[in-house]
Design brief:
The structure is a single chain. The chain has eleven helices and three strands; from the N terminus they run αβααββαααααααα. It has 259 residues and is mainly alpha-helical. The protein has a three-stranded antiparallel β-sheet. It is globular, with a radius of gyration of 19 Å. The termini are far apart. The relative contact order is 0.11.
Length: 259
């Protein structure tokens, strides 16, 4: 049985939540003492939690100045999704291959949490349930370090406030985007599970790339020149990682990954 989280771990979780929900914003400098007062604890666990947050890439500590949340570029976000394609797809296949009845029941419970939150249109709870579904699924693959790495990648993307719900798709659409993953694991089919996770990660990344590229183009100064990235170029980069054998996706494969 897992031990109760330490105070530092609790503060770290609260800091991550504050970053993800926008309470702590990129570019603003915060002090350990101010955060300690906000959380009602001493500075020591806050400092320890901030060091861990910096190690994960979500924040930057400047000596004697404070800490700032890191705003990731679109290029860095795409890099995160490339890594998810490389790591999460085979891990999902492994989970489907070795999952027993108890593990499948736990994954089903996490999916039910997602569905319940979607039925209530509770976006914040749905995003937590989405994270928990992925973590529960990946834990079945029996590689704790992999789970930690992938959770870090998800957090890095969300640091800039980027989430597909509700701006790019509805709560129910997000849940449905996970259903074939669940069904493949229930059927203990590694190949189907890998394909479902590949499609899901690519679909999510595509929605984010298109939205972020369009938004950043809107903020460019007319007449100065175009510096915003082309969404199609980044989508092509995702495909290059999705199909690691160097081939181009077939029309059917590409269609299966489109939003």
């Amino acid at each position: 049985m897992r031990n109760q989280p330490t105070l530092t771990e609790q503060i770290l979780d609260q800091l991550r939540t504050a970053v993800l929900n926008g309470e702590l914003k990129p570019g603003i400098r915060y002090s350990a003492s101010g955060l300690a007062k906000q959380f009602g604890v001493s500075r020591t666990p806050v400092r320890e939690a901030l060091l861990e947050l910096e190690r994960s890439g979500m924040a930057r500590i400047e000596k004697n100045l404070g800490v700032t949340v890191v705003a990731n570029s679109l290029e860095e976000i795409v890099n995160c999704y490339q890594l998810r394609l490389l790591l999460e797809v085979p891990a999902t296949a492994r989970a489907a291959q070795i999952a027993d009845d108890r593990a499948i029941a736990q994954i089903e419970a996490k999916f039910a949490d997602m569905q319940g939150a979607a039925d209530r249109d509770d976006v914040e709870t749905l995003l937590r349930a989405d994270r928990d579904f992925h973590s529960e699924l990946l834990a079945v693959a029996q590689n704790p370090r992999l789970v930690t790495v992938l959770e870090g990648l998800r957090n890095l993307v969300l640091t800039t406030g980027i989430a597909t719900v509700p701006r790019s798709r509805s709560c129910q659409e997000l849940v449905e985007d996970h259903r074939d993953i669940l069904e493949a694991v229930q059927g203990r089919s590694p190949q189907r599970a890998a394909a479902a996770m590949r499609r899901h990660v690519h679909n999510t990344a595509t929605l984010i790339i298109r939205r972020e590229a369009a938004q950043r183009l809107e903020h460019e100064t007319p007449g100065v020149g175009t510096t915003s990235p082309n969404a199609a170029e980044f989508e092509a980069r995702l495909f290059s990682f999705e199909f690691g054998d160097g081939r181009s996706p077939t029309p059917g494969e590409a269609a299966g990954s489109s939003p």
